[in-house]
Write a sequence for this structure.
């Protein structure tokens, strides 16, 4: 076993050259699969930040799983492109009864699921009934969060009494009537969520098992998703990629590309590098530092209209934040423009209330606390809190669409507060799970940075979530606000709900449980030859309109 | 020899039992709970309570441990809290990626490190030696993830020569019977896929292999220079044997013994380095999965993967010890 230096070097050189030469050799596989060639076949490679959890959208609640689901499934309701407003999709039209309890949907005809079975009213009711009757083992929030939030309860289990769904009746092929137990203005917009996609009852029957120990790992959820969308599942190679194939029998605008591939690259900078290197055609969640370099290198940056809010929250269980004068002082001390310029992407709008302007019930007719450090100092004096020490919590190791650089935002806000004499005690925590745990699970925090991206166009999805009940995050009890929000939730239509929420927003800004800062604009990055991508504030982005030239 | 191997295997059992208890307790002592991590910002107290109930986190810890061991004994290593997949399945699926990366990194480290260490030893005190010593020091102190980012910057951003993410170009439709991409290429003769997989291996392997490289250089250098001063070498030289024969027959063979032992220990370094390297390069192996499992407090995955890695590490070192005895007749393990 003697090793001659010369011989080992020669061996290495030979092996290397063999590898290089073989790279030029003919492949045994047939040409034309993947990549672009003269035959016109094309592939769109997109990088998200994580793998999907499962391919049955009922059982997932994260953006990456929904991204894939949106290509294969459709619901009764879609969105008007570029907005959060409901638009017809599988349902052509709908009417609501006066009391808000009965919804009549008129369905598209001639639509088939990927397994060639018909989409019809019977299929609609099969889907609604399936969700309502999910076994208790499937009723935990990690599995069916969206059903729980919208429909509040199932047929069985501890929340059965609160269930919003009553029944579904099919009338012929194309009319389905849904009855609710209570009015809910957000019902139709909520039906645009991927969790409420229409799935083939036949395929579900054959391959899905809702009572399985983990329904995310069944054959349906990993290999047989069956919807009506413009793409079908080619394959899901776990840990590698999801390959979607264009659906030649799609009832709407057929996909322009033959294949769409979704890969997962966790680090935003790595995604940017992969795009610049030509390894992918597009990606989501561009890191703030990558936007300019990508634009300068000739890549496209596409912005989504903000459907989020970044806020500075107050924990009123911690003194002196329970004094409204102190809260007002902090609001006056904040210069939102400076925050946006220093730490948020171009195109960010400043926030006046706790919801973006695309949401029903938005109003700017509120108390705004425009930047006035002198007034801030004065209020602090009046409250006897001049020079008070305030704990300021912020997260590290995270970049959210509504909060791309938390440390930078923190630093700006801190300097603004210190400029009015407050002493800031910074407390940093790793986002997951420490920060969330501390802010949302314990009262041990002061002022903090957080935000929210809305799921669908409903005011309750913003202010109801924040202020509908006492929480550890905000630490206050305001019975009037709680009951106003509870009542508003039960208003039958968005039109009737609009003025009620406008008033609620006014009240919130008087009460000032926090300071809404901005609506940052999330971005996607694309190669120059990608055309047609339509960004949606609620991420209703279907790739049948995308072409790769 | 057989008795030695059997005894070592038997000793592994109590070690693994102890490790599993330690892991179990220690993971749960970490702050943060999996329920909140699962639900993220959408967590409500009721939601968390329901998840804890469903996963049995409310039961006393000793009971949880025995439930876990009971399942282990019937071959059930549990399922990921985050995606519900069997821990064993996930490990087997991702294992080839990490092995491929680790082996490539190790080969690089040995193929470059041994000659460099030898050269440094034979040119002791001169420029080449100093250069190698300082270079290896730099290699040891540079954190893997920093080196990874630097490599990406130079080879992708500036030069555009090499890919920076994933194991393969997504546009290539390759078949993967074994999930060892290079091997798969050889089996299926899809040369372009194999070549592409090779390109994707280069940067991560360099990043991962730098520390083992530096260590191998130093150990080889020390070992070679020690052997060079041995009597039998001087005897051989004074007998008139050419330098080449002396080095081949006497010096290298003896000097490489410590290097072989080190390789066994490097396996541990490679696994831990793989966690960061895979994450930076989106290289879908065990390391990346572990990294995610840590932040989501995915106990079953953490327990299972760490146990598997411990078993593999112990087996590698067993093989190294046996090989040592085979290589060096002076050392016979009894």
């Amino acid at each position: 076993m003697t090793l001659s230096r010369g011989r080992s070097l020669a061996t290495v050189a030979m092996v290397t050259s063999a590898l290089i030469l073989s790279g030029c050799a003919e492949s045994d596989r047939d040409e034309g699969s993947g990549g672009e060639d003269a035959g016109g076949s094309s592939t769109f490679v997109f990088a998200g930040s994580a793998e999907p959890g499962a391919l049955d959208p009922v059982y997932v609640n994260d953006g990456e799983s929904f991204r894939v689901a949106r290509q294969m499934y459709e619901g009764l309701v879609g969105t008007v492109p570029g907005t959060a407003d409901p638009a017809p999709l599988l349902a052509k039209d709908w009417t609501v009864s006066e009391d808000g309890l009965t919804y009549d949907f008129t369905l598209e005809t001639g639509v088939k699921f990927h397994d060639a079975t018909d989409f019809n009213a019977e299929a609609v009711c099969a889907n609604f009934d399936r969700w309502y009757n999910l076994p208790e083992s499937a009723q935990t929030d990690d599995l069916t969060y969206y059903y729980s939030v919208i429909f509040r309860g199932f047929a069985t289990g501890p929340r059965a009494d609160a269930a919003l769904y009553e029944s579904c009746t099919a009338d012929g092929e194309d009319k389905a009537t849904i009855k609710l137990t209570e009015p809910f203005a957000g019902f139709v917009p909520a039906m645009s969520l991927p969790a409420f996609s229409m799935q083939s009852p036949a395929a579900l029957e054959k391959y899905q098992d809702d009572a399985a120990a983990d329904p995310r790992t069944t054959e349906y959820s990993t290999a047989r998703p069956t919807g009506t969308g413009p793409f079908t599942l080619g394959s899901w190679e776990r840990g590698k990629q999801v390959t979607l194939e264009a659906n030649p029998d799609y009832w709407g605008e057929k996909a322009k590309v033959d294949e769409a591939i979704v890969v997962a690259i966790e680090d935003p900078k790595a995604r940017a590098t992969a795009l610049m290197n030509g390894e992918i055609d597009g990606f989501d969640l561009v890191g703030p530092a990558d936007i300019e370099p990508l634009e300068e290198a000739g890549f496209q940056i596409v912005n989504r209209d903000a459907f989020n809010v970044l806020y500075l929250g107050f924990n009123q269980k911690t003194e002196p934040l329970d004094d409204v004068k102190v809260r007002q002082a902090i609001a006056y001390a904040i210069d939102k423009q400076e925050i946006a310029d220093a730490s948020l992407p171009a195109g960010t709008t400043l926030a006046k209330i706790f919801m973006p302007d695309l949401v029903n019930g938005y109003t700017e007719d509120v108390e705004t606390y425009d930047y006035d450090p002198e007034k801030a100092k004065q209020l602090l004096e009046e409250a006897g809190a001049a020079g008070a020490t305030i704990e300021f919590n912020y997260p590290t190791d995270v970049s959210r669409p509504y909060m791309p650089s938390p440390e930078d935002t923190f630093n700006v806000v801190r300097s603004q507060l210190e400029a009015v004499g407050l002493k800031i005690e910074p407390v940093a925590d790793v986002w997951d799970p420490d920060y969330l745990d501390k802010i949302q699970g314990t009262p041990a925090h002061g002022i903090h940075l957080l935000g929210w991206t809305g799921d669908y166009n409903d005011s309750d999805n913003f202010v109801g979530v924040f202020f509908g009940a006492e929480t550890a995050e905000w630490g206050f009890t305001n019975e009037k606000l709680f009951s106003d929000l509870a009542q508003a939730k039960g208003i039958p239509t968005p039109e009737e709900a609009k003025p009620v929420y406008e008033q609620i927003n006014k009240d919130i800004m008087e009460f000032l449980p926090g300071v809404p800062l901005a609506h940052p604009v999330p971005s996607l990055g694309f190669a120059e030859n990608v055309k047609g991508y339509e960004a949606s504030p609620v991420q209703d982005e279907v790739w049948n309109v995308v072409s790769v030239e | 020899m057989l008795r030695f191997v059997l005894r070592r295997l038997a000793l592994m059992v109590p070690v693994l039992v102890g490790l599993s208890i330690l892991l179990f307790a220690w993971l749960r002592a970490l702050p943060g709970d999996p329920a909140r991590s699962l639900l993220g910002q959408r967590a409500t107290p009721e939601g968390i309570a329901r998840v804890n109930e469903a996963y049995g986190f409310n039961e006393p810890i000793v009971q949880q441990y025995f439930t876990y061991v009971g399942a282990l004994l019937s071959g059930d290593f549990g399922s990921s809290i985050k995606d519900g997949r069997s821990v064993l399945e996930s490990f087997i699926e991702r294992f080839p990626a990490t092995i491929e990366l680790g082996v490539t990194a190790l080969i690089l480290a040995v193929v470059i490190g041994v000659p460099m260490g030898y050269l440094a030893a034979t040119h002791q005190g001169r420029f080449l030696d100093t250069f190698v010593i300082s270079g290896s020091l730099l290699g040891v102190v540079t954190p893997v993830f920093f080196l990874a980012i630097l490599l990406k910057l130079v080879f992708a951003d500036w030069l555009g020569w090499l890919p920076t993410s994933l194991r393969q170009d997504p546009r290539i439709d390759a078949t993967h019977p074994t999930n060892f991409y290079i091997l798969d290429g050889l089996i299926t003769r899809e040369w372009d896929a194999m070549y592409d997989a090779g390109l994707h291996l280069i940067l991560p392997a360099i990043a991962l292999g730098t520390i083992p490289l530096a260590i191998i250089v130093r150990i080889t250098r020390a070992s070679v220079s020690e052997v060079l001063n041995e009597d039998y070498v001087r005897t051989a030289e004074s007998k008139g044997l050419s330098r080449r024969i002396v080095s081949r027959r006497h010096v290298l063979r003896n000097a490489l013994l410590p290097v072989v032992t080190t390789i066994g220990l490097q396996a541990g370094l490679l696994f831990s380095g793989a966690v960061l390297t895979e994450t930076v390069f989106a290289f879908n192996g065990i390391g990346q999965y572990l990294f995610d499992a840590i932040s989501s407090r995915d106990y079953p995955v953490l327990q299972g993967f760490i146990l598997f890695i411990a078993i593999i590490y112990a087996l590698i070192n067993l093989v190294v010890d046996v090989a040592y005895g085979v290589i060096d007749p002076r050392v016979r393990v009894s």
Remarks:
- Chain A touches chain B through 70 residues (CB under 8 Å).
